[in-house]
From TrEMBL:
It comes from Blastococcus jejuensis. Keywords: DNA-binding, Transcription, Transcription regulation. Gene3D superfamilies: 3.30.450.40, Winged helix-like DNA-binding domain superfamily/Winged helix DNA-binding domain. Residues 11-71 form the HTH iclR-type domain. InterPro entries: GAF-like_dom_sf, HTH_MetabolicPath_Reg, PcaR_PcaU, Tscrpt_reg_IclR_C, Tscrpt_reg_IclR_N, WH-like_DNA-bd_sf, WH_DNA-bd_sf. This is IclR family transcriptional regulator. It comes from the Bacteria. SMART domains: HTH_ICLR. Residues 72-256 form the IclR-ED domain. Pfam families: HTH_IclR (PF09339), IclR_C (PF01614). The lineage of its organism: Bacteria, Bacillati, Actinomycetota, Actinomycetes, Geodermatophilales.
Length: 260
């Protein structure tokens, strides 16, 4: 099926409705009708119809001139998490890894251009960013993102890389698509990724893949540590081995559960 046929079979009203839902964020928790229209790229009349529909369905509430999401939108995300079942499977292994390393452990899946957190066992707070299930971070500068990018089919990886250069979140962030491609290739060969202060100054992380029954990467697992406290060598020699072991355990448990 060609791209034109796929496009003709889509529901434009559904596309616009989902676009409206996605304009709400931590930075924009409450928006006016004009704000929604501008951010979603639709007319005021269209934004009004969509917001009224979402309000009728219980996904949006109106307070004066402003609109905000309701907790019902969580059902959309938790439907995915329930079908994946990763949190239930991975939690005991992640908790054991955190108890052993005393560092935070997270799992994420890929939703380009971001990764999305689907499980997390925190320890001490080491990031300026507050993370939880559903949080999104750029794939290009995160160790989990690079593990997930390394398993993309070549055409999908090419399509992603042509969207660069990428945003520099710190002075260490790799933004050049060619250099990022080389790094992803190395991650693919070695089976893990390490990132040193590319997402946030003072933060280092190492990640490994969680694989399904077909051997494809379904998620990534990481450990994150404060740079002043944990050197790169310590991250590689003391944290990577137990992380790889845990990722293997989760992968085996995941495949035994019948998930792909």
């Amino acid at each position: 099926m060609g791209a034109e046929q796929v496009r003709s079979d889509t529901l434009q009203s559904l596309e616009r409705g989902l676009a409206v839902l996605q304009v709400f964020s931590r930075d924009n928790p409450r928006l006016t009708l004009s704000d929604v229209a501008r951010l979603a790229g639709v007319t005021r009349a269209t934004a009004r119809r969509i917001l009224l529909t979402l309000q009728h369905l219980g996904y949006v509430r109106a307070e004066g001139r402003q609109f905000s999401l309701t907790p019902r939108v969580l059902s959309l995300g938790f439907g995915y998490l329930s079908s994946l079942n990763l949190w239930e499977i991975a939690q005991p292994y992640m908790e054991e890894l955190v108890a052993r390393t005393h560092e935070s452990c997270s799992a994420a899946t890929l939703d380009l251009p971001d990764i999305v957190y689907v499980a997390r066992v925190p320890t001490r707070r080491i990031m300026a960013i507050s993370l939880g299930i559903g949080s999104r971070l750029p794939a290009h500068c995160t160790s989990m993102g690079r593990v997930l990018l390394a398993d993309l089919p070549p055409a999908e990886l090419d399509a992603y890389l042509v969207t660069g250069p990428f945003a520099a979140l710190t002075e260490r962030t790799v933004t050049d698509p060619g250099r990022l491609r080389a790094i992803i290739g190395q991650v693919r060969e070695q089976g893990w990724s390490m990132v040193d202060q590319e997402l946030e100054t003072g933060l280092r992380s190492v990640s490994a893949p969680i694989r399904g029954t077909d051997g494809r990467t379904v998620a990534a697992l990481n450990l994150a540590a404060a740079a002043p406290r944990v050197t790169l060598e310590e991250l590689r020699t003391q944290f990577l081995p137990p992380l790889l072991h845990t990722a293997e355990q989760v992968s085996l448990a995941f495949t035994r559960s019948g998930k792909r």
